[in-house]
């Protein structure tokens, strides 16, 4: 057994002292290999983190050996709720708590031998970092993409803050916060809003050029939710108002039974006849209690109220009753729909309930509602046409009443949080509430005892110096909100490029920054969990695209290739969680088995993108395998005999180069490891070797996976350490053609298989065949009477 504690410490010290993994001034091909930086929680590193971090480390090390200049950094997404809640509970400040957690994380990462350039470390809570988060915010404001608006927000009483749509999940039909599962309700509040909707089209179109999993692209596409349709203009009988409805099925225009508007529609009051007023007001009140999901669910019983007024059909001039119903949302399309019961499910339910006419306008033999394409009927000038033809014809004939319109499901990003531990907004308000951008850094005030917020303002409202600022005799106050945790993570991958070894940053808006971005962007590989599909990854793409439009970054997209690692489950196959008691602690395993064993084990568990259950026995097996390698190397280092060449060994090691390289390039690390295992088994069958070259080659192939052991193996071979090595070239001409496999027949029936090695005689073939366990059982009680062997074709053994 090798002494992993000693060996791993020794090499970690060596790498650190020699700054082996410091980012070089770019002079070769570049590789920017990025991890999703962790939130430094009190619980420390999770074996789930290690999976992605090992994968990127393998690629980084492989690329370095292959002559690339590599940027492989790490940092801390360190603002956030847990530190704040800890501070509220204990009366301590979140900063020292956060720093302590960071120290622990860094120590853990170092103990695993990841080849990060720690000079590039960034921390989102560092004023040197967030001064640039604030700068981006100010640029967004100047571009009209950030504004304060009184809007219906998602208020979470349990967390005492507003949440973004992306931070809310549905549980049993109720909206709750993703963190903590607290109920979320709609409530009008003044909030910072970022106009991500202005980038909807760009964010959609940008997906095309990305090498991302299709499932992830689909999630983003659906979240952006682009619908191409039409707006139809409806005149109102006896009024001067007009209504617009949004539809993706203009062709069904002749099947309309009602125009239904959202209870929040600004025209509701004006279109309600006096006799209907009480009923309508009551309905609006009830709607306020429901969330969007409750309102729009297909199965939900439809409700509504007829307002008493009528719209005029744009093609037939018929009078169409105007209703309100809560399944029409104000936030989508035009906040109004044309109700076509025969061809839309929800409209059908609505019409059934209120006895509206159901006018079928597409020929079919099935039951209504009929949702498919077909020939139109009862539709005047589009009779006999299909959907597409109908739409084209109506566009032409109703061109002043119908216009093309694109609607997006994407909502603007609510960007304030009523919290303390976040980036302050770089703004001041005077007593008339006029807003001023602050040029310099606005530092989070050092509050000794954070008080819980009341329901509309953050804890900063309790800070005297924050609320009373006097400049040139004039009074101002700061914003009491802070930015959401997504702010720092929306641009941190740029901050690594800006970070200098002395701890300073090149200014984000400088020529120097531009030059560095030209060199290093985009990120070549980004690995992280699937849970960030529509949060971090959409926000970061938005900011990046905005910075591209400003001319700050040279690429439209930040992350060219992205891989979602699978979940590492507990030994019971369940998601690891404290409450289930199935959490595996990496520190203990580094101690007992060593970092290399842990790294190799996690990569060997299965395909990177699959979910995999933990199994400590397999970890033991990997550790034994590493011991075997170590023992073989110590043995062979003393048993090199300059006897004849061994073409078989040369062949196998050159084949291994190809296999490992190919599988690293395909991110199939488990297969690469199994190929190395086969080689080590083969090596174990040799008594001595003719040269250490194959061993040296093997150590280099192993090094991305088990870097400490690989360094030690090179050391044993008296070879230079990894930073002076390069990825081996496979000598294809040394690879022997594959040995033929033939079936072993016993009395004419195939009972097994055998690989025929080139130098084998007929006796070797028979001896090897008959000594196989699965063949033994067919012959052990009999006598071999005849052997028929046609080289490389047939082996038939006749027994009696
Ligand atoms: C008439 C119609 C007839 C419709 C038909 C569908 C089928 P997507 O694809 O999700 O964009 N709609 C429009 N605005 C709405 C709102 N604010 N709240 C609720 N529903 C709304 O869906 C577009 C369809 O959703 C639109 O097309 C409209 O119903 C409805 F046979 O118009 B349709």
From TrEMBL:
Keywords: Aminoacyl-tRNA synthetase, ATP-binding, Cytoplasm, Ligase, Nucleotide-binding, Protein biosynthesis
Enzyme type, top EC level: ligase
Protein name according to UniProt: Leucine--tRNA ligase
Any Gene Ontology biological process: leucyl-tRNA aminoacylation
Entry's Gene Ontology cellular component terms: cytosol
Similarity comment text for this entry: Belongs to the class-I aminoacyl-tRNA synthetase family.
Main location class: cytoplasm
Binding site for ATP: 578
EC number(s) stated in the UniProt entry for this protein: 6.1.1.4
Domain of life: Bacteria
Cellular localisation: Cytoplasm
Species annotation: Metamycoplasma cloacale
Molecular function terms, GO-annotated: aminoacyl-tRNA deacylase activity; ATP binding; leucine-tRNA ligase activity
